[in-house]
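Researcher: Batch entry, complex prediction.
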Amino acid sequence: MSITLKHISKSYGELKAIDNISFDVKEGELFGLIGPDGAGKTTLFRVLTTLLFADEGNASVAGFDVVKDYKSIRNSVGYMPGKFSLYQDLTVEENLEFFATIFGTTIEENYDLIEDIYVQIEPFKNRRAGKLSGGMKQKLALCCALIHKPKVLFLDEPTTGVDPVSRKEFWEMLKRLQEKGITILVSTPYMDEAALCDRIALIQDGEILEIDTPKSIVNHYPKELYNVKASNMYQLINSLKKYEHQYSVFPFGEFVHYADKRSNFNTDELKAYLESEMLSEILIETTNPTIEDVFMELARE
Amino acid sequence: MMKQENVIEAIGLTKMFGDFTAVNKITFEVKKGEIFGFLGANGAGKTTAMKMLIGISIPSSGEANVAGYNVFTHAENIKKNIGYMSQKFALYDDLTVKENITFFGGIYGLKRKEIKTKSEALINELGLNEVANDLVGSLPLGWKQKIAFSVALLHEPKIIFLDEPTGGVDPITRRQFWEMIYKTAHNGTTVFVTTHYMDEAEYCDRVSIMVNGKIEALNTPKKLKEQFQVDNMNDVFLKLARG
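Model: Structure tokens for the complex:
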């Protein structure tokens, strides 16, 4: 196992940031921690990168204990924190050189690992890091986290606030790093990115809701799910919410995702009800649940 | 049906910074009560365009009317008739919920009495009675966003501008937030929203996508998906922005 956590808990005063968390990440796996702000993702990263002691439990990374062998862990992991962590007043090249030097290596030695990322920012190598765009900062931070050829890479919300194009490119880079044998633990609040991971842990309020492959997680959704649409979205939501047989009602883009309490649910009946609510252009069709549907289902339990 | 009035009209709106054209002749309109999504990659010019529309940046050329006022000549009137909320700055963490409401009510020029009534109504509606005297900083992010949204509506603006309002919030809270948006639009307030969540773009009545300073697409999410022959807004965005 590349990463192992056993019963890890950490509180800040009264607040339980993470509560009895256990899971394993296999060598070479791309593992996603999926959850909103305040779920405990960053605390987990800090424990695993030896920046914070857990109150309870134990954990190891790349075979090293996070407490006893903290120095070895620091040499064998790369960490890209959520907040931009580079030196704003140093140039792109200076930042990279700095990180290579403190890890006792050189840019040249591990250049093959960062090459296809670095070439994208190389034209700006004399620009100060503080003057880079969001997407370029993110690429530089990734290069700096990789320059000592880590066995395990920790990425805390690397794509937050980044537009869809840069996000897609970033995930393509992660896939290529994974092919080079690096284990990756990545956190994100974007549920659509979950599908790109080998396995994911859904996390909320310091607790793990579920761990599995994205496919299995979606398959575990317990209900038949329907897309419902009508002429007036606001009224549709209100009408569905007061329908006595509704199990869950969540707006999902142009549709509302609807689940019914009954096992013998008949869409005609719902349609008739919505018509009696003065709604028109009603459409009801079955749909496949997404990770987000599962997350919401688990979070309400 | 009656012709819907426009609350935002921009014609050839342009902003230059030196030689760089940040916003390049954008023309569009937004109707009363519409939920309008304003999308674009980082650096595409969204923020600059929005700053012109809310009256804090003077355009280099073009025309725009917002909430009935001209952006060149009546920027101050625009500010009084719109609400603004962003994820980065919304409320003062060191003030209580009540103090925040009072403060922003005052900024928007509401009378003391009005502030008191509206403050009570808002606290009741959001179910915040128990935390009304707690510091905002101690509340969960989702609550803060709902309060910030309501505060931005205190002075009953014609348009509310939401600048990436829901980042990082859990999926259930995000949906509660969108239900508030639907309600606001249903009551006739126009909602102008920027977001990086392409699934959120699907909630909007119409969506515009900026690429390199220009609006390259503008339509309902359904029609955009048909036009680009894809099944979600993320793919529409990728097709456009990647050229």
